[in-house]
Every structure is written in structure tokens, then in C-alpha cells.
TrEMBL record:
Coiled-coil regions listed in the entry: none
Name of a matching Pfam family: HisG_C
Protein name as it appears in the record: ATP phosphoribosyltransferase
Organism listed in the record: Thermomonas aquatica
GO MF terms held by the record: ATP binding; ATP phosphoribosyltransferase activity; magnesium ion binding
Domain annotation Histidine biosynthesis HisG C-terminal: ranges: 231-300
Reaction equation(s) it catalyzes: 1-(5-phospho-beta-D-ribosyl)-ATP + diphosphate = 5-phospho-alpha-D-ribose 1-diphosphate + ATP
Cofactor(s) listed: Mg(2+)
Gene name in the database record: hisG
Pathway: Amino-acid biosynthesis; L-histidine biosynthesis; L-histidine from 5-phospho-alpha-D-ribose 1-diphosphate: step 1/9
Length: 304
């Protein structure tokens, strides 16, 4: 059972996103695809929702979990790395976090990795005993060290973490990795992933105030619809009844198709939502299996 909500006294939902940074544009694009728009000016940090009771807060990403926790805002788009770090901090201090991941959003992918100097012969976590680890994710790193049963010193840096071994400030680092270029440029190599991260929609652990819950549900339904059709296409075709099984074997990434019979019953007209890429080569294979009149259509909106 979720804890009961604290009344907010508000009747408009607030969603926080990063003001400037890697997640700003994709977060805006996602909310835009959900049909939301705001009255904006470049220096505005609070944007009033134009066409739905949903206002936008533009903030530093690190502040998003705290804003949700305190009930000043209802939802947020933030890296899982930030959310898990701040929950680990709460675990350390024994105060439960009132924020959690509601949906993975499929952008801002990266991993939190332990990396050691290239000349280390990595044998496993035990090698870190008594060593210094530079990171911007101290609580997450400490939690991992506890799991591994290793005692090491955590050196907190807010950026340019990868420089620490060269300066003699730490022996190894634990930082975000995407292309791996920063590690290579600093003669480091990743040896272990602590977390796979991406942008997530965060919300409170407690239920939302009933005044806001309906709007939040509407937004979640739209986000689910957008995520579901991302890279999806509607495939339409006809196939003789006895070829349908062969045709469907070529569509393992499709949702169960809908079909109706035409031409006296022997021919089926079918449509299926495909979540993978429908290439020309795939269309040729479907044709060889008996499908005819193949058409690939973009999907603009979807509401389950
Ligand atoms: N190299 C990367 N590749 C892909 N995603 C990344 C990378 N580095 C970080 N991210 C993801 O993007 C999020 C935002 O990164 P960014 O560098 O914009 O944050 P920031 O400097 O902390 O910004 P802010 O000013 O809001 O505090 C990170 O928390 C992480 O989830
Ligand atoms: O694997 P890569 O593609 O090289 O990306 C990894 C780098 O990206 C992030 O740093 P950012 O550029 O945000 O700078 P920061 O040091 O200020 O965090 C992260 O902290 C790494 O340093
Ligand atoms: Mg930040």
C-alpha cells in the first residue's frame, strides 16, 4: 500500500525537467509529443501550461528528486543515476525517499562504471581494498563497496573525475561512461558497471493528491503511447489463409495482428504493429512467404 498523499493545495500538475543539459531537449521533445505546450521565454524557470493543467519547472537535474520528495513538484525527468544516488544517500541516513522511478524513457543512456588505470591487471573488487575511488556518486559507490565487502576511501569530485588518478588524488574512478572516449583520453579502462542508466520519469512513492492524480494518469498514458510507437510502424498486407503462419513467423517483433477475410474467405487482410525496423529486405521475405499489397505506415499516436 502506498502512503496516503499530503494535500498540495494545487490543482495543476508540476513536472520538473533539466534547464540546460543533456536531458533538456529530449525531455521537452517527449512532453511535446504528448501534446503539451507552454508559454515560455528563454529566462523563465516556471512555464505555465497552455493546453493542459501541467506546468513545467526548469531546474538543475540534481534538484529534481528533492523537489518531488518535498511535494513542490509532482513528476520529473532525470537520469536514473541521479535518482539512485539520492535514494542511496537516503538509505545511508535512514530517511526513506519519497521519490521513485515510474518509467524508463529510452534516452540519455549511459552507465556508471568503475575504471582503473590501463596498466592495472584487474582481478576483481577485492583489489580495491584500501584504495581511493574518485566519484560524483559517493552513496552509490559506497553501497556497492559494502555489497562487495571491500573497505575503500571515496573521494568526492563534482566533475572531471577522470583526471583524479593522474593527479594522484585517487587510484581509480567511478563515473558515467557513454562513448568511453573520456576514459581512453585519460588512460583508464572500465572494469565493472555499477548501474545502467537512462532518463526516467520520476514521481512520488506516495499516491498523488486526488486533485492531480487524474492529470498525472493522463500524462502517463500519453507517455506510454509515445514510448510504445517510438520506432514502430503499422504493416498492412493481404495473405492467403494457408500462408499466414509463414508470414507471421517473419514478424516476431509485431503485436498480434488484426485480420478480416476478403475475397470469399480465402484471402485475409491483415495489419500488425511492428516494433522493429521494416526494411525492404524484410518486405521481400514477406512477399516470398505469400504476403501481397504490403504497405508500411507511420504511427502518429496511440492510446491503449
Ligand atoms: N556522457 C554521457 N552520455 C550520455 N548521457 C549522459 C552522459 N553523461 C551524463 N549523462 C546523463 O545525462 C544526465 C545529465 O547530464 P548533464 O551533464 O547535462 O548533467 P549536469 O551537468 O549534472 O547538469 P545540471 O546543470 O542540470 O546539474 C546525467 O545525469 C546522465 O543521466
Ligand atoms: O564516455 P564519454 O562519452 O566520454 O562520456 C563520459 C563523460 O561525460 C560526462 O562528463 P561531462 O561531459 O558531463 O562533464 P563533467 O566532467 O562536468 O561531468 C561524464 O562525467 C564523463 O566524464
Ligand atoms: Mg547536475
Amino acid at each position: 500500500m502506498s502512503p496516503k498523499p499530503a494535500p498540495t493545495g494545487r490543482d495543476r500538475l508540476r513536472i520538473a525537467i533539466q534547464k540546460n543539459g543533456r536531458l533538456s531537449e529530449p525531455a521537452r521533445a517527449l512532453l511535446g509529443s504528448c501534446g503539451l505546450s507552454w508559454r515560455e521565454s528563454p529566462d523563465k524557470l516556471f512555464c505555465y501550461g497552455d493546453n493542459a493543467p501541467v506546468d513545467l519547472l526548469l531546474v538543475r537535474d540534481d534538484d529534481i528528486p528533492g523537489l518531488i520528495d518535498s511535494g513542490l513538484c509532482d513528476l520529473g525527468i532525470v537520469g536514473r543515476n541521479v535518482l539512485v544516488e539520492q535514494s542511496s544517500e537516503r538509505d545511508e541516513s535512514g530517511t526513506p525517499a519519497n521519490f521513485r522511478e515510474l518509467r524508463a524513457l529510452g534516452f540519455g543512456g549511459c552507465r556508471l562504471s568503475l575504471a582503473v588505470p590501463n596498466d592495472w591487471d584487474w582481478q576483481g573488487a577485492a583489489q580495491l581494498q584500501g584504495k581511493r575511488i574518485a566519484t560524483s556518486y559517493p552513496a552509490l559507490t559506497r553501497a556497492w563497496l559494502r555489497e562487495q565487502g571491500v573497505a575503500a576511501d571515496v573521494v568526492v569530485l563534482n566533475g572531471s573525475v577522470e583526471i583524479a588518478p593522474r593527479l594522484g588524488q585517487a587510484d581509480v574512478v567511478c563515473d558515467l561512461v557513454s562513448s568511453g572516449a573520456t576514459l581512453v583520453a585519460n588512460q583508464l579502462k572500465p572494469v565493472c558497471d555499477l548501474l545502467q542508466s537512462e532518463a526516467v520519469l520520476a514521481g512520488p512513492v506516495a499516491e498523488l493528491d486526488p486533485q492531480l492524480a487524474e492529470t498525472a494518469q493522463m500524462l502517463l498514458r500519453r507517455i506510454d503511447g509515445v514510448l510504445r510507437i517510438r520506432d514502430s510502424k503499422l504493416l498492412m498486407f493481404q495473405a492467403p489463409r494457408d500462408a499466414v503462419a509463414d508470414v507471421l513467423r517473419l514478424l516476431p517483433d509485431a503485436e498480434p495482428p488484426t485480420s478480416y477475410s476478403v475475397d470469399g474467405g480465402e484471402l485475409l487482410a491483415m495489419q500488425a504493429l511492428c516494433h522493429g525496423v521494416v526494411t525492404w529486405q524484410r518486405l521481400e521475405e514477406l512477399k516470398r512467404a505469400g504476403a501481397r499489397g504490403l504497405m508500411v505506415l507511420p504511427v502518429e499516436r496511440m492510446l491503449a
